[in-house]
């Protein structure tokens, strides 16, 4: 479609185009002709309905990767061919939009393309849009380049526009408008990325966008999920079920060659599970180190990797571990623990996720021996690796899939539980981490001022004017005084809240000083008296997920957001933080970092020392040396040194750290009543795959931030906050409370940080 076509007719046209364009040439041609009209006419709607009916009769897609939504468009002008592909798995996170630029004639000079990618939610009342801008350079003599635009996806993308400027001049022929969009997947299914072997290319050919590979037969994996979860819908047109005798594929599974994996870990942020053979991992690490590093950083930030074909008794499991955790950082650390066997109690006939009433019962494998299991598990940072001995992961019994997923846990392989937020349902925890004391009316002050105003404007004013025989001035004095008091109250509220940006942060940071890897999960709450003119600026190694209350049937965010990608940073220029309106974000950072604490061994009779290289004041510290002895310290300035005091019983120090953390627990401000959700009708789910799976409600307590804090402060395996009974830190590790995490980014210069909590765990 070249122009906006509104209402339900637009929904039908776009839905039919997306569903039918991939089935038969005749229907694809018809869909293109329908979408080419400028205005909606009755026969257009009728044609669309006929095509939709034909699609639902059971016409099967020709491609094997049916789960990849989106489309690919091509345009050419002024000696340049532009191809834009939006195909990827639907889901929350950064969607990698691939852009291929190739010259059609030899280039004598460098060319600069400025692209504005617009993703729109068009048929929902209160349309939403996100615009992402990026420059692409095409050097002289080049055969072409392929680049990626990372587009945050927090709502269904129903329509895409691409506006193009070539060397500063707008090109209508290179621009594309109104082509097919994508949706948001059901929250009850994981997004699975299978890594395959590269496709042989033609030597000297221009670079192209990622070719999807045929998906494996994942019938057994599909069988463990409820039927309503696997029948995903797009724009009111359901994907038809797989015909008998054909291979079934999970609706949220795609297969990509390892040489086309994303180069930045943020482009994997919508993926829940990555599956690959150990041999593919070897070749990935050897031939594509940048892509391997992206996979590694995604894993450390909370991703899940299943490495299979490791051989009997997991002979190659350690090889996979060394590739995923470089620099020999595998011994007794918090970043990578030893392989563990799965719990036999997790071997069941159904997934724990959906309850007994919704998950099909599967019984296709004999009960395992307590001493033997077909896979092992190992934690890497906030992520999890599963090493399976099978040479064909998707041919193993369905009950083994259930065992693996139950062992990993839904708080890891379901996106909304791993991040603790939903873009389709109410997030009740939004109100428990507000910046304290802002955004609320100063009731006591207002009562005093109004009382004084009533007394002054009433009897006092009357007697004063009567004594001067000017009672006729009451009609002038009263409204003027009312206006003055009203503006005075408004000004008082502004001055009380201030005009700067106030931030309340809750962060958990892991530092592996042996490999130089750092990950940081944070929950940032903003209140801006005046929205920052430049918006928020984050590095390109940080993913930013808005946390909205969703108390009614619309998002709390503004209807349009703008983002600009430049050299190693993302500028959230507008639409993200509004003046005098609470805003929250979940951010995750994964990168190479030199921050840490340097342990200085004891000399002669001197006690051991620690040097603070975190760039922030250390409030409290509990540390263990290479022999497992515990030490503590407090109030260490940035760049400073402090002597370590031996601790015979670490439980006392752990209790003090626990008390400090509890004082900074989330909670609804005193006197604040969260808005009622009585009017929540969930109309948004009606538009894009709104099947109710009765999944557990979104909770911030399941995200990796809160889980990491609990494990660090009270020990692993705790589901709620309780006084620690005492536990020992692993050797050569530490737990620190700091004034500000070295890895957190607020996005604004010099914000007022208040009532924050920053916890750092590390290995050295």
Structural features, described:
This protein is of the alpha+beta class and 764 residues long. Helices cover 23% and strands 28% of the residues. Strands 18, 19, 21, 24, 27, 28, 30, 31, 32 and 33 form a ten-stranded mixed beta sheet that branches. Strands 4, 5, 7, 8, 9, 20, 22 and 23 form an eight-stranded mixed beta sheet that branches. A six-stranded mixed beta sheet has the order 13-10-14-15-17-16, with helices on both faces. α6 crosses α7 and α6 (278-287) runs parallel beside α8 (317-324). The longest helix is centred in the middle third of the chain and has 25 residues, at 443-467. Mean pLDDT is 81; it is low at 1-66, 232-243, 330-336 and 677-691.
Oligomer: single chain
The span between the termini is 57 Å
Contiguous runs where pLDDT drops below 50 for at least 5 residues: 1-66, 232-243, 330-336, 677-691
Structural class: alpha+beta
- Helix-residue proportion: 10-25%
Largest sheet: 10 strands, mixed
> What number is the mean pLDDT?
81
* Number of helical stretches of at least 4 residues: 16
CA radius of gyration is 29 Å
Number of strands: 33
Shape: globular
Q: How much of the polypeptide forms β-strand, as a percent range?
A: 25-35%
